[in-house]
Write a structure and sequence with these properties.
two-stranded antiparallel sheet; alpha+beta; two-stranded parallel sheet; Nucleotidyltransferase, domain 5; 159 residues
Length: 159
Amino acid sequence: MVAAEEVGRGTGRIRLRQVADASAASLHSFVEEFIEPGSIIHTDGWQGYAGLDTKGYIHEPIVLKHRKESAVELLPRVHRIISLLRRWLMGTHQGAVDRAQLNYYFDEFTFRFNRRSSRHRGKLFYRLAQQAMLTEPKPYQRLIQHSRGPQGDVSTTRA
C-alpha cells in the first residue's frame, strides 16, 4: 500500500506498508493509521476504498476504466514512488529482499524519501535516535527467523 502526500505539483511525505489483502478492512486500517481525518484521498475505483467518506475523509475515487489517461497519468505520485522503490530495491539490494522483512525495507525507503530535502540534516541522527527509542526491540533471532532452515541453519540455496 502506498500513500503519497500532494504538495503542489510535487510529492511530500510518503507511507508504505504491506497489507494482507485488498479488502476494505485492510485498506481502511492503513488509511486510518497513516492519514489524518479530513484529508482528501484520491484512489482508484477499487470498491475496498468505499466508505472512507463515512470515516471523516474526503474520498475522491478516480475510476480508471474507460479513461483515455493511463493510471500513471491519473495517479502520478503513487506510481512514481513505486517506480523509485523498485529501482532502489533492485539497485541497492539486488532484489535479494525477503518478503517477511519487506516492511523494514519500506520503513528505510520511507525514512530516506521523507528526509530527501530536509533543511535540518543535523537533526537526522537525533530523529533516528528518537525513533529507535519509540520502537520495540527486535532481537537478531527474530529478525532472521524466516531465513533459517529446519535445523536452524542459514539456508544456502543456490540458483
